[in-house]
Amino acid sequence: MAMANSAVSLEDVVKCYGQHIAVNNLSLKVPSGSIYGFIGPNGSGKTTTIRMILHIIFPDSGSVEVFGHQDTRAANDSIGYLPEERGLYKKLTVRRQLAYCARLKGMSGSTINESIDRWLERMDLTGWKNKNIETLSKGMMQKTQFIAAALSGPELLILDEPFSGLDPVNLDIIKESILELRENGTTVILSTHDMTIAERMCDFIFMIYRGEKVLDGTLSSIKESYQSNTIRLRYRDENTLNLDNIPGVTAVNNRGSYNEIQTTDDPQLILQAASKLGEIELFEIARPSLHDIFVQIATPEREIGTDD
Amino acid sequence: MIKLLTVAWNDYRQTVVSKTFIISIILMPVLFGGMVFVNLFSNENIDLKDKRLGIIDRTNILYEEIESKAEQRNQYEIYKGKLGDRKQVKPKIIVEQIFDHDYKTDDAVLGLSDRVRENSLFGFLIIGQGVVDDNEAHGESSKIIYHTGSPSVVEIPDWFKTVISEKIEMMRFEEAGVDKRVINKLMRPIDMDRMGLAMLSEEGKVIQPKKDDPLKTFGIPFTVMILIFVTMNMSAPMMLNTVMEEKMQKIAEVLVASISPFNLMLGKLLAATLVGITFSIVYISGLFAMLIFYSESDLVPISLYFWFYVFLVLGLLSFGSMWAGIGAACSEMKDTQNFAGLTVMMIAVPVILGPAVIQSPSSTFSVIVSLIPPFTPLLMLVRMAIPPGPALWEVALGLILCISFTLLCVWAGGKIFRIGILAQGQTPSIKVLIRWIFFH
Question: The pTM is what?
Answer without folding.
Answer: 0.70
